[in-house]
């Protein structure tokens, strides 16, 4: 008995990758096949086959233009289906005639196997049969048979002159003496072209050809200097022609005219072989085997070509004709998209069609593709990409003006075209369309924002970044519930997870788990030590949330922290350990770049472009800053530690100098070591400041914190070199030093400055930094009010100066005070205050007058206490009302209101400080002691950011107002609209046959079909139930009547 064991191929997912690694085909094995972009993970197209169909295998072939699908339905044999991906004809889904059986035959010992790109059968004799290869051979033979073979009406031009004019000769007439018009009607005596001036950008006279393609002479082929066009006359409208076909040779400079080598006319068709340069020629025809795909591609190419011809137009008439041509080309593309949205997505990916439309600037067509209408709404007709599909079959001439689309995304191209000219608003509108489209769709998938990161620096020019970060997708995208958080969160963070989890950003686990023994190194030992310490901590302070599952979100900015700096390959880190250690100690790090900031990551570029703090106040930026802050903080903590040693050495040396400390032996050597250490650290910190100056320029030190950094170091070194170091002696240290009042004051003020710098360095720690920035923001908010108070004090002090500076001339008497001390003895003591009218005068000069007046805020009224004069009392009374009662209480009330606002701004200012520190650190040369993990494509985070509530309220406000990014710019422009369904009607004369759509050509079932069938079944059931209810009611009524009759 023959035993057969069928391959169990239905439980495993089916995968196939295109030859250029840009598209992946996936199927769970049952009925549905989906194509995805590998780069972004976005779905391109999905096809549902018949019910109960199992997909066994699939593969890309023929330069990724063909997909072979092996499937099985109810029959015993498997079936093969050829899916021509870039084809809009009815036979794009082509069943293969013939069946195969995928099984192991134990009698004949035949086997089948699947390897990447192959599906083979092997028999007992060792003969191998490749199913895909044999299938492709058969398919090529069938394609040759099925290739369109049209009977020519007339061979107009041919290399073989004997064939010209066969089988039918056309009536050749001259037009304007240099042009040729070919009629099929020999009764015509004068040339009558349907259209004129179809290349208005060419301002010279050149030979043209017009060829009628039908006997009605309603369709005319136009061959100009750089284009081939087909125009059709609408029969029921006089002098109304519409464009059916447009091809341009992409000679942007228009230096070479087309040369017709061969021209064959068919009934409503043609074939042309043309040449325009020695090495550039092509063949053009209509109709095409793939139906409308190639003509639509040519139409998009034409839009790109025409964009570079705009500046050559002369006169209003030429401008009008030019816009008419662009509108007609847009109609061709629009109709194709409307009828074949899925095929459009595929050819857009392969031929970069959306890019060419963006270059042309057709706002109406772009908006239709992105947002659609009721028929193609939410079809996702455009997918963002960074890596282009390079098609070797396509070539075009170079031009100085032409944009290299292979190096830029669609969004970047749209931004680069926003030049300060008359078209600026129209170009910016396209940018806002793209941003609105990407951010709206990115709520569910981060792949929609794959091109945003690289474009962010360019968006700053047009002030679109702030509004962009208030889009809902900028709160992060929550990962799917089917993903275990333990698979992506590093173990060092998993140990301490709890319900009160702090905001934490991390690089997810993306490496494959190795089964081999790991090589022991210092990095591995360090990681294990950290992990062990955290486990020990959890044992002491146990985590009671073992079953806690945190919410993990993705920052939807692709490669946001990845830079393009050249990387030095280092393999042997152990041998470089000592070198790196010495460099770290003695040589401050240099900057990797000088002026070309475009090599830095997008994060660093926008940090350097941001002039205010708006962009930092959102969850996404806070997560990125949180992730990048740790390595940057460690670097600046190293500088902080060196500064502490620097300031400590200064304090020790200057303290012994002021005290004239005498020391010998080891103590003297210790002081000498401190001096050497001070100058070494001063050199190191000064070189750091110099490299910052060289990198950023002088404007870097216009900022308060940077200025204090430089001044504190320079001042300490100068004071040490002038006063302290020359007084040091190896024999007795500072025993013979001669201190002066000036040196002591200079040292004390320098020490105060060093302490101030120390406090500012505490910004590296979260809690002190919070209070530093709160204080700074309070000063920013109240400085005008404080200045006003100082002016009031200055005015009062000046009045007292005039009134009391010379009491001997104004005959002012002082307040005399005396007291008597009575003791138990015989003697009583009488005490009277001795007052010097000049030295003890609180208004002897302006400074003392100002200080004494300022002391009113502390409750000390020296002027009134000293002088017994009515004018002093009056000014004191008036000043107290103004300064104490009004201004001081206003300041207290003002401070209470300012604090909450200062707290919010202080938090954002702290984020900006960290961001700027990250920007500085990212531009520095890296010194690593161990191999570093690459920057992640996406950053993940868990917990709620501190900025979330404020950001969420602002985002909801914008959502409630239903404001889009393009509203402001769209109001400024009035664009053409595509014809509506009612106006469009049915055009039976058109070349473009749209009698079948995406779902035709091969019987398939979409999700909508399944839903409609289900709804139909539900309706049938409802109808049957209703009929049954009616019959039951009738039967009940009859029974009631029968019972009533029996009772009677």
UniProtKB/TrEMBL annotation:
Biased composition (Acidic residues): 1006-1018
Segments for region (Disordered): 1000-1019
A GO term from the CC aspect: plasma membrane
Membrane keyword on record: yes
Top-level taxon of origin: Eukaryota
Keywords from the named record: Membrane, Repeat, Transmembrane, Transmembrane helix
InterPro entries: TRPV
Statement: the UniProt record of this protein carries the keyword Repeat: yes
Transmembrane segments: 635-658, 670-688, 700-724, 744-762, 783-803, 874-899
GO molecular-function terms, A-Z: monoatomic ion channel activity
Biological processes annotated in GO: calcium ion import across plasma membrane
Official protein name in the record: 843_t:CDS:1
